[in-house]
Amino acid sequence: MVRYGYPEVVIPQIASTADISAVYTHEEACSEERDLDASVKYALQRVVKAPAASVAGAAGIEAAASPKAEPSGGPARPSPVALVQLWGNTLYHIDDLPMDARIPGEVPPVYTSFRKLAEKNCKVRAPLAAPSAGDLRPGPDGIERLATGAVGHTGEIERAVAAGSGGWGGLPSLEQLGVGLLPGMQL
């Protein structure tokens, strides 16, 4: 699915129409991205879904998204959509570093010092196995009808993805996205 817009608007919009109880993302290290993640998390807390026992994540990671039982022992209340953050996009996993990288000032300010510590004390983790086709759920129905949430866009990208590129998980062509090549350019 290709979407255009502000993540704190678009992601909750998708979550409210799709049959999901959690959104998975990489944990970020920089303050601007962490602030954006906090905005997405806040917006997702306002998207309430039907109760679910738990949310199974990638690589066997499980995030609790269980409904809160009423104090009277009555039926469970709906739960908000959870934002589950996983570390990624780095050679070394943050939990394998010889310092607590989540604490400001713990990481050496000079890259060479960091690299020497990491090379001496860390081991690169093996990659996770790719999911098999049977492990993946089909995409949400009606993806071509989702609005993008951005001014001037009314779902053109989603329609392009659904129409000519294999639907959910496929990529649209540049022409379907309305992007043309400059004269003399080739792909």
Q: Characteristics of this structure?
A:
two-stranded parallel ribbon, 187 residues
Could you describe the 3D structure shown?
The chain starts with 6 loop residues before the first helix and ends in a 23-residue tail after the last helix. Helix 1 (7-17) runs parallel beside helix 2. It has 187 residues and is of the alpha+beta class. The protein has a two-stranded parallel ribbon. Strands 2-5 form a two-stranded antiparallel ribbon. A two-stranded antiparallel sheet has the order 3-4. Among the domains are: 19-89, no CATH class; 93-138, no CATH class. The protein has helices spanning 7-17, 31-45, 111-121, 156-164, and strands spanning 22-26, 48-49, 55-56, 62-63, 79-80, 82-86. It has four helices and six strands.
Strand and helix map with partners:
Elements: H1 7-17, E1 22-26, H2 31-45, E2 48-49, E3 55-56, E4 62-63, E5 79-80, E6 82-86, H3 111-121, H4 156-164
Parallel strand pairs: 1-6
Antiparallel strand pairs: 2-5, 3-4
Helix pairs in contact: 1-2
The largest pleated sheet is described as:
2 strands, parallel
Q: Kindly state the mean pLDDT as a whole number?
A: 72
| Total strand segments | 6
Radius of gyration from the alpha-carbon trace, in angstroms: 21 Å
Helix percentage range: 10-25%
What is the N-to-C succession of helices and strands?
HEHEEEEEHH
In short:
The chain is of the alpha+beta class and 187 residues long. The chain is built from four helices and six strands; from the N terminus they run αβαβββββαα.
